[in-house]
Write a structure and sequence with these properties.
alpha/beta; six-stranded mixed sheet; two-stranded parallel ribbon; 3 helices
Length: 144
């Protein structure tokens, strides 16, 4: 009797299912990992005693105010007057995320907030950093 080699045996096959599963898991991991990027603009945020997880289902516009009083609208430097014009080009239901440095001029933040409210906008997220002792699940404060 001549034993059959694996090339001649029709019942021998290589199961690719575990390899495909591993490739899909790696693909999902890398897709998810790329969505968690840090903001481009470093802003030292003010602290808050309490914070709540914000609902972020809508399109967001980032307004950042730095320590030296510069305003950035979606990463581009703008003047307070230009901020009003920039916001006007977006629908009123768009959520505005304020990233305000804790050493930034408070009056400038109020001016930016007034510019948004003057256009009838009501959805804002004001990012703050956690104070010591807060739980890790607490996130930015949402206001309406």
């Amino acid at each position: 009797m001549n034993p059959l080699s694996w090339e001649e045996d029709p019942d021998v096959s290589l199961d690719m299912t575990p390899l495909i599963d591993a490739v899909f898991m790696l693909l999902i991991f890398f897709i998810m990992a790329t969505t968690f990027s840090r903001p481009v603009l470093e802003v030292a945020l003010a602290g808050a005693e309490s914070a709540a997880i914000a609902d972020r289902d809508k399109k967001e516009l980032d307004v950042s105010i730095t320590e030296d009083g510069r305003i950035f609208f979606d990463g581009l430097a703008v003047s307070p007057e230009d901020l009003t014009a920039s916001l006007a080009s977006w629908p009123p239901e768009t959520v505005i995320v304020f990233n305000v440095d804790k050493k930034a001029p408070f009056g400038l933040f109020i001016r930016a907030l007034d510019a948004a409210k003057g256009q009838g906008r009501a959805d804002f997220i004001i990012n703050v950093s956690r104070e010591r002792g807060q739980e890790d699940h607490e996130q930015p404060v949402a206001s309406k």
